[in-house]
Each structure stands twice: as structure tokens, then as C-alpha cells.
């Protein structure tokens, strides 16, 4: 079969021509082709096998400073022609917007294609039967690891190769490719009348750098078992330690406030605060689109702007927002290469790690709670309020005492970032927003 | 532009899918056109459209599902996908090809919707009216964002039982987000309305009324105090409070979790799971509602299911796979986000039936507590039933009266536990207007939620007030 990168680029270029033919003054087309494999085993048997090749196109049509966007999975010539016609017609109904337009600067010369090591050779090399065997292996491991494991919600292995191309009417042509793999397991333990599922998964560019199946299965069992017998903690104000996956979800909320799109419309507690000290000395947050092997790495962003390393917080001080071309123009800043489909997205956003392990953080905490999981989406980006349901371990005298659940932790983002007083060294790049474990000196716990 | 697949082609694809054997196969073809406009600060900032066109092919054998999809709908591509899906069959008991396919007409539960979306000017006008209304309502309204979406999904589902079912599903939504500002304080309000109908509904349920509701919530919150923390009686407001029911009870009654034994409700049909005041229904056959399915994504008609009756667990929500494995009939709950993914058992419109109390009696029975008028989101953990909700609009209850607004409040609890603490149920049951979308396994589908005014004798409130 032809190289999907060639196919993607050819369709993108023909879509740009169709948009111009339909009357667009400027045009951009992005085509992605994803080949994916997914299998799931449960109860020591294969349950799901999925294979897919998904193709899609997204275009932007400009009529002067008016703009419309269109996406489709119909990539035939007739489909692309209809898409072009509709997109140009819709642009006429959009208001004049002086900030709308393609990125500034000269287009790159010819086809831009650096892989930044985002393709792992071992993804193409591995056969389907091997992946199925691995899912079955994780099922066996979770069942055998601990007598309390009574059931499973399945173990999954996925892999994908994504190819994408961008072309625009100013002459930019970019094409790139990336691989990704994930392994996950979900053992179930009985806890009195109730059950607890211990989800755990890992993601990486290739099999060699992903956590091995055995480690994923055992970690999932550990998560399920750790919360057995949990009870509500008292309502109190204590230090809270965020285990790294939960810490990453906090960073995800901080990213929303760093996004120029939210800042520009006033839906960010970080609006108008560049240069201010927001976090503690330990808060240095970096977004790096060129990190080798990072899951968010790419030579250029979704509108063809070169990716780069951006320091968003430096020792607690807010240095810049993360932006694409449009929202950057609204705020009067340059794009940071963070255009994502339909808006602003992270590339590889992380908090610079400190030293020591999660256990060290626990040992250094007189009385507090270690959060291993949160539920709910209870954050408000305009006001900066943070409040989520949580599960974890109660700590006293620097030692874990018992599991706790059915409580909330709350604070505000400014207060939380300012109160980060310890950061562990356990950072791993297994997502596009990642964090080491950290401690917040004081948060409100609502329990009994 | 909306094209159907040829029934003979569907029959050939099904035959190919079952070539290695298998209990069942189906082909799900969809063509969906979505038109969306967004207004921001007085200007139409974006117009966007989406076409989703493709086919998903599934082969089922026992508990196993093989699946492949194709955005290319030419015969070669569909046969390749059928081959890929058939690889799930491990012990290859060959079965005969499908008999002739017969068309089945879906019930009519939606207003007629034209193939082509309305003139763009009509959407633009709706948003401009919402913007003017929100801005004019209060000088503290700092920014207004509004969107309108108009969607038509055509589906054609053919299966190895010999049926071809088609359905044309309209879906509209109009939402307004208002940010109100007072000094350095910002608060957000949100309101929306829509359903499986055409944009003609906004002639009656006007964009102005949606905008004013959103502005009222945002400006009310400017005066809000930090929410209290700890256990207290909580009153859930009618309509939008139904999210709590959806999360705390609904998900745990979806058949996949119960077949696998991962839900806390597994194997408990006939048992008491809630106060006798609680009767919970999921209804996919309500005309025009957002969660309605004339047929689900497996071609089964939507239906009314009694999930909990006077506190007793009566049944689960089934798709075909789980129904067959559990020896019952599908309840028309097999739903999928698109042709790219397998169907799952999902809720449609989930609500609690009304009781005999008045809202005033319910609030009047509480000396100190919280009134949750609506929620902005929630989540449940299926295996144990723990839930969390963020209260979008909440108030203190003091001395039997609703008093000061509070912000940043969450409710946290355990579904079955909360249901036993339902001590009063109002007669004011209704479905919420808002445009709820439910996520499960990475798939998002439109749903309806509803509830009457309900008193929980106690629930944990997560707030930031220093107690």
C-alpha cells in the first residue's frame, strides 16, 4: 500500500485548490490517516478485536478576514468539492475578524518532515497475535497477583500509527507521522458489599519505552487493593499529596487557564497576570513540542507553525500563555506553536521534577492525605475554584494509616500553586500533560 | 447528498463478515451533517460544519466482538473491513450466508428535518438575539458566548437476522455562556435548550429566555459566598438536578457492567436499592427529547424501562450483545457515538417520577442545608457507586427558606446510600431543558435527564468555606 503520508498530502493539496476554486482568498487543509489496532481480553479470553483505518480532513476557508471551518470523513473528490463549496459559503456569514488568517511568516521551503523520533520502529514490527497474547497475559497476572482480585473489567492493548499533512494557500506543506501504544488493565476487588476497580494504563511512542505488561497489571492490582476498606475522613484542613497521575490532572486544569483562547475571552483566572508571582518557587512549568519521543511531539503544530519549548511558569512567576496564531493575535503575543484541532492544545506540558520518591513525600508529612484518584470535573476556569471528589490514603506521623474515600478536596488554583511546597522526582512522559507527585501545604477536606 | 447504501451491497458485506462463522453480524452506516455557529462578544466568530460518513462492521461470537470500520464506502473497502471484523471468530463454525434483507420502518418520534440545513442567516439571527438579551439584562455582564448547532444523522443498520432499519435523527442545541464581572471577581452562568427537532423550536423556547437564564445565574453567583463543607440535608431542584440520578443510579444499571459483575447493582434485581419514594424510568421513546431514539444504533426501537420501582430494582438497560448473553431482550439501549466505535448499553432520557410533597414543604422541613438548583457536571464510579457533582447554581437553606447563593460547592456521596436517604419527593417532576451529553468509554451521546424536587436527608457537601 502507498505511504499514507503521500496520500494525506495529496488530498490536502487538492482540497486547498478546491477551496481557492470555490472563491476562498486563503485556505488551509489538514488530512489525517490513522491505522489502529485494539484488543481486549477478559476472563482469560479474547473479547474484542478492532482494526481501523480512519481518514479525515479539516479545512479553514478565509474570505478576507471572515473564516469558516469544516471537517469531514468523506475524502472522495466529490466530497472534498462539496466541503469546499459549503465552507466558502458559510464564511460569508461570519463577522469580520481582523485577527483571523493564516500564520505569519514565510512558508517553509518544500515539504517539512522531521520525525523528532515520534515513530518507533517496533510498532510496525509487532504482529497482532503478540498483542493479543499480551492482553491475555495481563489478565492472567491480575487474576493471580492477589487473592482479593475477584473479577476484571478487561485488559487492553492498543497501537496506532497516525500520519498527517497540512497544506495552505501560502505555500506551506508539512507532513509527519507518529506512533503510539497503550497497555491497560482493570482488576476488580471485592470490598464488603462493594467492588473496586483499579484502572491503570500506560502510553508511549513504542513498545520498548512503554511500561511492560507485567508492571501495568501489578500496578492496577495495587491500585484496586490499596483502597479496600476505605472510609470517609473528617472534615479538616491538612496538607494534600497528589500522586503523579492526579497531579497531571491538576496541570490539565492549569493548562486550560494558560490557554490564550480562555484568557482572551475572560474565562481564565490567569487573565492579565503575566509577570506576577502565582506559584511557589517549586512551580516551573514547561511545554516542549520538540521533546524526543514525547507523545505530544511534532515538528509543527496544527496550522503548520514550528513547535518549540515554552516556559509558562518560571519559579512561580507566570511568563506567558500558550497560543496558536489567532488567539495570540487577540492577546498581542506570538504563537507558541500550540495550535490544536479547533483551538489551543498542549504539546508536552510538565512540571519540572524535584528529587525523592512519593514515599519520601509521605514520610515528610506529619498529617495529611495522599490522593490517588479523583472523580468529577469540578473546576471553574473563570473563578479559579478547584473542588473534586477524591480517594486516597490518610497519613499520620509520616506513615500511611488507612484508605479514605467519599470526600472532596477544595481550594483555588492560585492558592494551590502558591502552596506547593514539595515536588518529587517521579516524572514520566506517558501523556501530553504529565507531572511528578507534589504536595500542597493545605487544602480543605470535606468528609464527615 | 444523504445517500443510502444499496441493500444488495449490505447483504454481500454481511455474508463476507460471517464467512468464518459467528453468531451475529451487523453493518452500521451513517451520514451525519452538523452545522454550527458560535458568537463571541457580539460577533459571529465561527461557522463550522462536519460531515461524518462511514460504515462500522461487527461480528459477534459468544462474548467476543470483532470490529472494523471504513470511511470509504466502496464495496472493496467494505469487504476488507468485513474480513478484518471476521477475524474475531476463533473456532470457525461456518454459518450460512444471510437470507434476503427486509426493510423495517422506524417509528416517527422526530419532527421532519430537511436534508439541507437552514439558511445560515437564521442561525446568526438566533445568536444575535441571545447576545442582545444577555447584555441588556445587567451591566455586570462582561462577555457572552453563544452557540447553535443543527444536526441531521441518517443511519442504515443491516443485520444477519435479515433486517435493514433506517432512521433520520435531527438534533438541535442552543447554549449561552455568560461571564459576569464585579471588580476582580468573575463568575460564569450557562443555560441551553434543544432536542431532537428542528431549529423551529426556538420560535417558542426563545434565545432571549435562554440568555436571560444564563445571565441570571452568572450575576447571582457574583454575590455568592463560599459553599459550606460537611454533611447536611440537601434539596435537589427539579429538572437539571436529574444529572444526579443519571450518574448516581443510571450508569450502574447499564447491562454491560452488570453482565460482567463490575457494577454494585449486579445480580440484585428484585432487591431494595432505594427509598420506597424512588421510581426511576429510562425512556427512549419520548417524542422530540434529546435522548430519544426511534430505533437505537442496533435497529431496536427505543422503549420505556422501569429501572427502579418504589425502591425495588426492576431491570437493566440492554444492547443486543448483553441482552443475548443475559437471556433477555434488548431494551433499545444500544447506542454508539459514530460508525467508528462499537455500540454500548446507554441511557436515553432518565428521570424520577414525582411524589406528593410541594417544593415549599420540602425546603421548609430543613433548618440548615443546601439547595442545589442545577449541576454543571458529574461523574460516578460504577463499581462502588461513589459520585461527585459540581453545583452550577446553589443556595443555602436557613430556617426553612432558600437564602444566600453559594459558589464552588460539590456534592459527594454514594449512589445507593443517597437513594436510601431520599425522604421527600415533590410533585414537580420534569425533564431538564439543558443539552446534556453523556460520556462513557470515550463515546459521547446526547441524553435527557429529569427529576422532581427531592430531599436527601444528608449528603456531603464539598465547599471551600473555612469551618
TrEMBL record, chain A:
Residues of the Metalloprotease TldD/E N-terminal domain: 37-91
Signal peptide: none
GO cellular component: cytosol
Pfam family, one: PmbA_TldD_1st
One example of a Gene Ontology biological process annotation: proteolysis
All residue ranges annotated as the Metalloprotease TldD/E central domain in the record: 127-227
Entry GO MF terms: metallopeptidase activity
Metalloprotease TldD/E C-terminal domain segment(s): 235-447
Similarity comment: family membership: Belongs to the peptidase U62 family.
The protein, known as: Modulator protein
Automatic annotation (TrEMBL), chain B:
Any one biological process term the GO annotation gives: proteolysis
Name of a matching Pfam family: PmbA_TldD_2nd
PANTHER family given in the database record: METALLOPROTEASE TLDD (PTHR30624:SF4), UNCHARACTERIZED PROTEIN TLDD AND PMBA (PTHR30624)
Organism field: Vulcanimicrobium alpinum
Cellular component terms per the entry's GO annotation: cytosol
Family membership: Belongs to the peptidase U62 family.
InterPro entries: Metalloprtase-TldD/E_C, Metalloprtase-TldD/E_cen_dom, Metalloprtase-TldD/E_N, Peptidase_U62_metallo, TldD, TldD/PmbA_N, TldD/PmbA_sf
The name this protein goes by in its record: Metalloprotease TldD
Keywords: Hydrolase, Metalloprotease, Protease
Domain Metalloprotease TldD/E central: 119-222
Coiled coil, from the record: none
GO molecular function terms listed in the Swiss-Prot or TrEMBL record: metallopeptidase activity
Boundaries of every Metalloprotease TldD/E C-terminal domain copy: 230-463
Domain Metalloprotease TldD/E N-terminal: 25-86
Amino acid at each position: 500500500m502507498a505511504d499514507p503520508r503521500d496520500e494525506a498530502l495529496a488530498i490536502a493539496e487538492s482540497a486547498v485548490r478546491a477551496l481557492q476554486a470555490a472563491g476562498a482568498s486563503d485556505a488551509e487543509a489538514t488530512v489525517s490517516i490513522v491505522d489502529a489496532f485494539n484488543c481486549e481480553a477478559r476472563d482469560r479470553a479474547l473479547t474484542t478485536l478492532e482494526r481501523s483505518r480512519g481518514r479525515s480532513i479539516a479545512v479553514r476557508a478565509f474570505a478576507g478576514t471572515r473564516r469558516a471551518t469544516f471537517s469531514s470523513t468523506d475524502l472522495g473528490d466529490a466530497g472534498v468539492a462539496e466541503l469546499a463549496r459549503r465552507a466558502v459559503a458559510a464564511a460569508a456569514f461570519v463577522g469580520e475578524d481582523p485577527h483571523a488568517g493564516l500564520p505569519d511568516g514565510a512558508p517553509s521551503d518544500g515539504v517539512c518532515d522531521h520525525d523528532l523520533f515520534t515513530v518507533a520502529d517496533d510498532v510496525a514490527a509487532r504482529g497482532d497475535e503478540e498483542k493479543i497474547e499480551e492482553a491475555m497475559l495481563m489478565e492472567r497476572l491480575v487474576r493471580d497477583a492477589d487473592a482479593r482480585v475477584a473479577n476484571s473489567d478487561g485488559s487492553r492493548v492498543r497501537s496506532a500509527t497516525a500520519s498527517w499533512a497540512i497544506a495552505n494557500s501560502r505555500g506551506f506543506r508539512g507532513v509527519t507521522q507518529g506512533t503510539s501504544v497503550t497497555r491497560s488493565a482493570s482488576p476488580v476487588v471485592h470490598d464488603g458489599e462493594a467492588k473496586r476497580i483499579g484502572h491503570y494504563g500506560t502510553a508511549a511512542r513504542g513498545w520498548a519505552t512503554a511500561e511492560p505488561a507485567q508492571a501495568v497489571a501489578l500496578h492496577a492490582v495495587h491500585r484496586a487493593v490499596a483502597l479496600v476498606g476505605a472510609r470517609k475522613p473528617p472534615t479538616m484542613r491538612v496538607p494534600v499529596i497528589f500522586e503523579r497521575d492526579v497531579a497531571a490532572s491538576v496541570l490539565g486544569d492549569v493548562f486550560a487557564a494558560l490557554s490564550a483562547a480562555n484568557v482572551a475571552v475572560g474565562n481564565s483566572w490567569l487573565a492579565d497576570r503575566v509577570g506576577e508571582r502565582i506559584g511557589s518557587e517549586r512551580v516551573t512549568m514547561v511545554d516542549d513540542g520538540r521533546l524526543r519521543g514525547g507523545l505530544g511531539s511534532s515538528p509543527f503544530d496544527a496550522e503548520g507553525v514550528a513547535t518549540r519549548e515554552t516556559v509558562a511558569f518560571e519559579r512561580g512567576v507566570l511568563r506567558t500563555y500558550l497560543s496558536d496564531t489567532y488567539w495570540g493575535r487577540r492577546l498581542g503575543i506570538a504563537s507558541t506553536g500550540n495550535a490544536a484541532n479547533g483551538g489551543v492544545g498542549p504539546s508536552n506540558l510538565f512540571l519540572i521534577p524535584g528529587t525523592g520518591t512519593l514515599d519520601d513525600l509521605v514520610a515528610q508529612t506529619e498529617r495529611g492525605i495522599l490522593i490517588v484518584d479523583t472523580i468529577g470535573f469540578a473546576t471553574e476556569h473563570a473563578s479559579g475554584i478547584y473542588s473534586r471528589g477524591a480517594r486516597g490514603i490518610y497519613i499520620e506521623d509520616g506513615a500511611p494509616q488507612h484508605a479514605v474515600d467519599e470526600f472532596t478536596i477544595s481550594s483555588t488554583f492560585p492558592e494551590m500553586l502558591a502552596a506547593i511546597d514539595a515536588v518529587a522526582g517521579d516524572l514520566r512522559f506517558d501523556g501530553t500533560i504529565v507531572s511528578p507527585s507534589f504536595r500542597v501545604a493545605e487544602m480543605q477536606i470535606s468528609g464527615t | 447528498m444523504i445517500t443510502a447504501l444499496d441493500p444488495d451491497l449490505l447483504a454481500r458485506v454481511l455474508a463476507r463478515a460471517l464467512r468464518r462463522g459467528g453468531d451475529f453480524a451487523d453493518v452500521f452506516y451513517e451520514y451525519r451533517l452538523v452545522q454550527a455557529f458560535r458568537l463571541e462578544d457580539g460577533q459571529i466568530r465561527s461557522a463550522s460544519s462536519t460531515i461524518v460518513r462511514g460504515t462500522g462492521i461487527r461480528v459477534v461470537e459468544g462474548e467476543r466482538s470483532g470490529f472494523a470500520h471504513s470511511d470509504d464506502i466502496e464495496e472493496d473497502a467494505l469487504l476488507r473491513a468485513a474480513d478484518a471484523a471476521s477475524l474475531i471468530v476463533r473456532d470457525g463454525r461456518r454459518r450460512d450466508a444471510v437470507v434476503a434483507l427486509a426493510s423495517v420502518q422506524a417509528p416517527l418520534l422526530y419532527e421532519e428535518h430537511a436534508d439541507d440545513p437552514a439558511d445560515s442567516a437564521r442561525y446568526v439571527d438566533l445568536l444575535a438575539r441571545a447576545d442582545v438579551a444577555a447584555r441588556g439584562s445587567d451591566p455586570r455582564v462582561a462577555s457572552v458566548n453563544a452557540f447553535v448547532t443543527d444536526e441531521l444523522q441518517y443511519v442504515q443498520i443491516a443485520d444477519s437476522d435479515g433486517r435493514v432499519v433506517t432512521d433520520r435523527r435531527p438534533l438541535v442545541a442552543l447554549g449561552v455562556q455568560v461571564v459576569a464581572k464585579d471588580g476582580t471577581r468573575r463568575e460564569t452562568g450557562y443555560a441551553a435548550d434543544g432536542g431532537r427537532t428542528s431549529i423551529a423550536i426556538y420560535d417558542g423556547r426563545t434565545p432571549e429566555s435562554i440568555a436571560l437564564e444564563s445571565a441570571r445565574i452568572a450575576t447571582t453567583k457574583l454575590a455568592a459566598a463560599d459553599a459550606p463543607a460537611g454533611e447536611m440535608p440537601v434539596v435537589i431542584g427539579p429538572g437539571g438536578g436529574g444529572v444526579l440520578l443519571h450518574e448516581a443510579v443510571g450508569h450502574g444499571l447499564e447491562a454491560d457492567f452488570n453482565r460482567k459483575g463490575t457494577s454494585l447493582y449486579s445480580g440484585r434485581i428484585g432487591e431494595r436499592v432505594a427509598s420506597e419514594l424512588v421510581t426511576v424510568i429510562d425512556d427512549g421513546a419520548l417524542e422530540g427529547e434529546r435522548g430519544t431514539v426511534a430505533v437505537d444504533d442496533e435497529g431496536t426501537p427505543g422503549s420505556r424501562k422501569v429501572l427502579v420501582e418504589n425502591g425495588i430494582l426492576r431491570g437493566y438497560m440492554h444492547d443486543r450483545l448483553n441482552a443475548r448473553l443475559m437471556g433477555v431482550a434488548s431494551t433499545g439501549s444500544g447506542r454508539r457515538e459514530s460508525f467508528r466505535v462499537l455500540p454500548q448499553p446507554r441511557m436515553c432520557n432518565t428521570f424520577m417520577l414525582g411524589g406528593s410533597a410541594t417544593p415549599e414543604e420540602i425546603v421548609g422541613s430543613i433548618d440548615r442545608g443546601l439547595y442545589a438548583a442545577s449541576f454543571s457536571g458529574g461523574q460516578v464510579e460504577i463499581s462502588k457507586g461513589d459520585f461527585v457533582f459540581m453545583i452550577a447554581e446553589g443556595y443555602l437553606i436557613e430556617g426553612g427558606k432558600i437564602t444566600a447563593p453559594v459558589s464552588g460547592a460539590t456534592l459527594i456521596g454514594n449512589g445507593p446510600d443517597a437513594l436510601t436517604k431520599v425522604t421527600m419527593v415533590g410533585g414537580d417532576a420534569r425533564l431538564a431543558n439543558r443539552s446534556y451529553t453523556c460520556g462513557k468509554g470515550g463515546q459521547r451521546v446526547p441524553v435527557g435527564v429529569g427529576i422532581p424536587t427531592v430531599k436527601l436527608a444528608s449528603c456531603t457537601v464539598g465547599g471551600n468555606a473555612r469551618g
